[in-house]
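Here is the promised in-class demo. Please do not try to memorize the tokens; focus on the logic of going from shape to residues.
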């Protein structure tokens, strides 16, 4: 307490008795007077002043030293009580020094240390060694021993004017408070240094406001009977009222519920335990069970047990789910993730240029699925490791990569303006995919071969069905006006790019190789390879025998030399042979085109041949007609 009273009252220069008591002890500085309202000492009180003193009392301008020994008890006007066995008061520095056990108490705060220096003018106490301080919510609770916080450190400074305590060396705090649920909550803190701040309350004792922690900070906070939430950082600022932690220099938060830990890391973090909020910046990383979230920054809402409930991830955002069957991941510039009551990832929505990856654990029998989208990807989960639906926004590509286990193994790529992927009821395997808008299906053999073609199919839309397991496409239906281009992987004479077009096209795949094994073209079907052409209402191409089968309408095949029609035509593209059945009609454009192989006089006139059936070998340049041949 500071007063303008300049009087100095004290005992005589040397007093020796069993008990010395002084009701008012004041030391005067140039501008003010520091007042200790009361002290007692059971052994002696002695005051040494300058040798040339005219009075038995030191004057206001003289320096002196007072020695208090034996059960010293000091009470200040600011309600600070100090107890020790030995105090030396120095007028010049206005300090009271104790070199033994010191106990002090002020309203709802009390403590002890070995050795202390009381700097009265500054209203500060330096606690020198083995410091222990206890705080209470109120003086009434202090009397009953219901402690709010206990602080231990190697040394400390209690700044009464600033309402703070600076702690140094081996700092530990134990804080008891109420959790958001209303139950008891305990927080244990460790750090190399700390500053405890109090806030004054009108007419009441100051109460704990916040704690600032430095170097090797470790905090464990738990509701009664629950697994603790552990916090590690290089720096932490704890706000008591908000139950809020500001963490810097490497933040690490861990929680565990039902043996499923949540591990949170970032360069910096703001953890609002009472509000259930979490903000991470700089290499943010959250792992919850088999789920992982990463990004430059993560802003999350929490369940009561501090598990992630909802998260917004910004900058290099990713969400990953790992199960025994596969790893599912999605990346984007921004991503929203939601967890269900079982603390499992239930929804992941990627915003912007996005990629989703389904990597199987058993790569021998499952396709690796990679989906990219221009505007976003959404994944709806229905349990741990189980997917319900995947959808995309904007131009989308799905890559289905297969193991190179067969000579004719082939991967696939499906591209469209939007793609929706639906999973089986088991949530583990893709059931179907719907690709709408400028759709393209690309089939690429993993090995080159004379029968292996790179196939590109374009259609306004594809509806694809998958085999029961393996994420392998079973069939795709494309329409309207589907177009196919098949480019041989090995060049050969007489072989070229094959083109097929129709109103609707169905591609069927081989489950073993994942290559297209059958193409069904329906409605105005047309097939072309080099100068060879074919028309029919329906065409079926089978990969096994490289044959195009023409049915319906008026099947027709032709090249630069001839044209042939029949009710049925089978075109063996591998061996360049054609088999015609029923009402065969062939037109050779001229005898010259037939290299004078027929006995007609005029070489520039067309030649017509009809029969019930015919076999034409284009490579051997022979044709055999049977059945009423004319």
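The designed amino acids, position by position:
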């Amino acid at each position: 307490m500071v007063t303008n009273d300049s009087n100095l009252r004290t005992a005589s220069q040397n007093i020796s008795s069993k008990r010395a008591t002084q009701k008012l002890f004041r030391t005067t500085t140039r501008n003010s007077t520091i007042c200790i309202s009361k002290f007692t000492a059971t052994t002696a009180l002695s005051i040494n002043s300058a040798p040339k003193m005219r009075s038995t009392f030191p004057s206001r301008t003289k320096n002196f030293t007072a020695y208090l020994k034996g059960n010293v008890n000091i009470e200040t006007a600011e309600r600070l009580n100090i107890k020790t066995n030995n105090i030396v008061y120095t007028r010049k520095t206005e300090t009271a020094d104790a070199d033994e056990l010191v106990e002090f108490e002020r309203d709802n705060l009390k403590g002890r240390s070995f050795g202390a220096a009381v700097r009265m003018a500054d209203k500060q106490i330096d606690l020198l060694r083995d410091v222990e301080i206890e705080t209470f919510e109120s003086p009434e609770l202090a009397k009953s021993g219901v402690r709010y916080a206990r602080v231990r450190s190697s040394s400390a400074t209690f700044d009464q004017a600033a309402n703070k305590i600076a702690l140094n060396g081996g700092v530990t705090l134990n804080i008891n408070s109420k959790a958001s649920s209303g139950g008891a909550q305990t927080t244990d803190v460790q750090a190399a240094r700390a500053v405890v701040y109090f806030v004054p309350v009108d007419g009441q004792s100051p109460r704990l406001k916040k704690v600032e922690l430095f170097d090797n900070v470790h905090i464990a906070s738990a509701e009664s009977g629950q697994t603790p939430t552990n916090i590690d950082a290089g720096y932490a600022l704890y706000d008591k009222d908000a139950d809020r932690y500001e963490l810097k220099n490497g933040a690490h938060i861990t929680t565990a519920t039902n043996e499923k830990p949540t591990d949170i890391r970032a360069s910096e973090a703001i953890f609002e335990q009472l509000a259930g909020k979490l903000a991470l910046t700089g290499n943010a990383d959250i792992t919850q069970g088999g789920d992982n979230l990463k990004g430059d920054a993560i802003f999350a809402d929490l369940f009561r047990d501090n598990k992630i409930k909802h998260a917004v991830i910004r900058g290099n955002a990713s969400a990953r789910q790992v199960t025994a069957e596969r790893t599912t991941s999605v990346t984007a510039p921004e991503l929203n993730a939601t967890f269900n009551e079982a603390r499992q990832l239930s929804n992941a929505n990627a915003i912007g240029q996005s990629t989703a990856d389904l990597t199987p654990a058993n790569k021998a029998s499952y396709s690796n699925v990679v989906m990219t989208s221009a505007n976003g990807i959404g994944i709806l989960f229905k349990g741990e490791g189980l997917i319900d639906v995947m959808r995309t926004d904007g131009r989308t590509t799905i890559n289905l990569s297969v193991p190179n286990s067969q000579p004719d193994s082939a991967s696939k790529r499906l591209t469209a303006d939007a793609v929706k992927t639906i999973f089986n009821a088991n949530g583990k395997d893709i059931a179907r995919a719907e690709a709408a808008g400028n759709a393209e299906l690309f089939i690429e053999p993993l090995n080159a071969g004379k029968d292996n073609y790179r196939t590109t199919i374009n259609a306004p839309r594809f509806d694809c069905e998958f085999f029961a397991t393996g994420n392998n496409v079973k069939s795709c239906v494309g329409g309207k006006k589907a177009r196919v281009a098949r480019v041989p992987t090995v060049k050969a004479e007489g072989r070229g790019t094959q083109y097929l077009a129709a109103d609707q096209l169905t591609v069927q795949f081989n489950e073993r190789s994942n290559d297209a094994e059958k193409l069904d073209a329906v409605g105005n079907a047309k097939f072309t390879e080099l100068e060879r052409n074919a028309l029919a209402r329906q065409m079926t191409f089978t990969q096994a025998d490289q044959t195009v089968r023409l049915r319906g309408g008026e099947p027709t095949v032709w090249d630069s030399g001839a044209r042939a029609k029949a009710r049925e035509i089978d075109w063996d593209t591998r061996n360049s042979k054609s088999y015609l059945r029923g009402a065969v009609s062939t037109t050779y454009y001229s005898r010259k085109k037939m290299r004078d192989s027929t006995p007609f006089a005029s070489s520039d006139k067309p030649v017509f041949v009809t029969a019930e059936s015919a076999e034409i070998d284009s490579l051997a340049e022979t044709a055999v007609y049977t059945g009423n041949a004319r």
